[in-house]
Specification:
The chain has 273 residues and is α/β, with parallel strands linked by helices. The protein has eight helices and ten strands.
């Protein structure tokens, strides 16, 4: 897969991850784009501005993760906004992404962490996040983040785990995907850190792209259209975190919308994981 990395020089975790990446391998074929402003507000990423992005299949944003609790975490998610655009991007618009690439990266992130966690000074959680924040780009992409406070942003060993995960995309190919028979899907419901979708992404043959969380419900037709059309692979089923979808009226609204579009669906508690 032809991929590139983007990070902001204002972002300490992104800078740390890229430094570790450069230390792991000499890979001039992998463009590394230094953004002059905050990553989530870098809307002007294009081949015209960055010619080295020509013929690139996928863009990885290396960045910080922030949370009020400050828990150590390594996280992965697609960017975009289901409603407002307070943190970059545009309201109601999400980025193109790949369910296959997200699944591959999440499994690699977990693997690299398990193999190297004894080198870390503290325990990290490995988690997906739901689709949120900017920027809005035309290139298929995702965020991989190191968090959730300055202590972790400067953690070189944790950043190296992220860097190894990014570098592993060199081994990603269509034959690998075909042999695993992954099922492209989008997720609906549940909290921001998507515990049910974490298990599914790690342990099932479903490959999750965009996730619409409970706090963005009720679901609108435009949300479903965005999620489906911005997933590179053809979505075969939609997975619903049933208990994470509010009341019965909210759940029925989701079912009605999916049936209107002729999309199959399954509850996450019915997926073997």
């Amino acid at each position: 897969m032809r991929f590139a990395i983007a990070y902001s020089k204002l972002n300490s975790a992104g800078t740390n991850i890229v430094e570790q990446f450069r230390g792991l391998a000499y890979a001039p074929q992998i463009p590394i784009i230094e953004l002059p402003k905050d990553t989530i507000f870098s809307e002007d990423i294009s081949e015209k501005k960055y010619p080295e992005l020509r013929n690139i299949d996928f863009l990885i944003f290396a960045s910080t993760h922030k949370s009020e609790k400050g828990n150590p975490s390594l996280s992965l998610h697609a960017p975009g906004n289901w409603r407002n655009a307070d943190l970059g991007g545009k309201p109601g618009k999400v980025c193109k992404t790949s369910s296959y690439v997200l699944k591959y990266l999440f499994q690699e992130l977990n693997k690299n962490y398990q193999e190297n966690k004894d080198k870390l000074s503290e325990e990290y959680s490995i988690t997906l996040e739901v689709t949120h924040h900017g920027p809005l780009t035309q290139m298929p992409c995702c965020f991989i983040e190191l968090g959730s406070s300055p202590k972790q942003w400067d953690d070189k060993d944790a950043a190296k785990i992220v860097a190894r995960t990014i570098l592993s995309l060199q081994n990603y190919d269509s034959n690998f995907i075909a042999s695993h028979q992954w099922i492209p899907t989008i997720g609906i419901g549940g909290p921001h850190y998507a515990p049910n979708f974490n298990k599914i992404q790690l342990n099932s043959n479903y490959a999750v792209s965009h996730i619409i969380p409970e706090y963005c419900l009720p679901i609108g037709e435009n949300m479903l259209t965005e999620a489906e059309q911005k997933t590179l692979e053809q979505v075969k089923e939609v997975l619903i975190d049933w208990k994470g979808c509010g009341n019965s009226e909210s759940r029925q609204s989701i079912i009605n919308t999916l049936e209107k579009y002729g999309l199959k669906y399954k509850r996450t508690d019915k997926v073997e994981k």
